[in-house]
């Protein structure tokens, strides 16, 4: 059996964000992007500043109450996958297939 470290990586490093939500709240979350291929993970690393910028802009307009719900989080995951794939010019079959929260805190 193969050592896990011998597999090419298919995920981004943990991306951490802190974003203002309106005037009184902020969202802090960690995100890992799972990819369909190692090449997509390399593209995410190359486009990381653009992806981070786009995610911050996306989140700046989000409704706090909706993000507190499971439905709101699932919708955000879909948007994050689409956003990352647009940035690296791929789709879910060749690029980012899933976004995983490693932490999610609204204060």
Keywords:
single chain; 107 residues; alpha+beta; three-stranded antiparallel beta sheet; elongated
Describe what you observe in this structure.
This protein has about 110 residues and is an alpha+beta fold. Helices cover about 40% and strands about 25% of the residues. It contains four helices and three strands, in the order E-E-H-H-H-H-E. Strands 1-2-3 form a three-stranded antiparallel β-sheet. The protein is elongated, with a radius of gyration of 14 Å. The N and C termini lie far apart (about 45 Å). The model has no long low-confidence stretch (mean pLDDT about 90).
Strand content: 25-35%
Query: What is the residue-averaged pLDDT?
Result: 89
Total of helices: 4
- As an assembly, this protein is single chain
Alpha-carbon Rg, integer = 14 Å
Q: Strands of the biggest beta sheet: in what spatial order?
A: 1-2-3
Distance N terminus to C terminus? Answer: 45 Å
Uncertain segments are none
Number of distinct beta strands: 3
Overall morphology: elongated
Instruction: Give the fraction of residues assigned to helices.
Output: 40-55%
Main β-sheet, in a few words? Answer: 3 strands, antiparallel
Derived from helix and strand composition plus strand pairing, the structural class reads alpha+beta
Please provide the ordered H/E string of secondary-structure elements: EEHHHHE
């Amino acid at each position: 059996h193969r050592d896990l470290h011998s597999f090419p990586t298919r995920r981004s490093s943990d991306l951490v964000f802190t974003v203002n939500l309106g005037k009184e709240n902020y969202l802090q979350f960690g995100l890992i992007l799972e990819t369909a291929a190692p090449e997509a993970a390399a593209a995410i690393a190359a486009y990381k500043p653009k992806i981070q910028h786009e995610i911050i802009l996306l989140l700046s307009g989000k409704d706090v109450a909706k993000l507190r719900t499971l439905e709101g989080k699932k919708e955000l995951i879909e948007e994050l996958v689409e956003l990352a794939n647009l940035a690296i010019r791929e789709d879910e079959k060749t690029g980012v297939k899933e976004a995983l929260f490693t932490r999610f805190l609204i204060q």
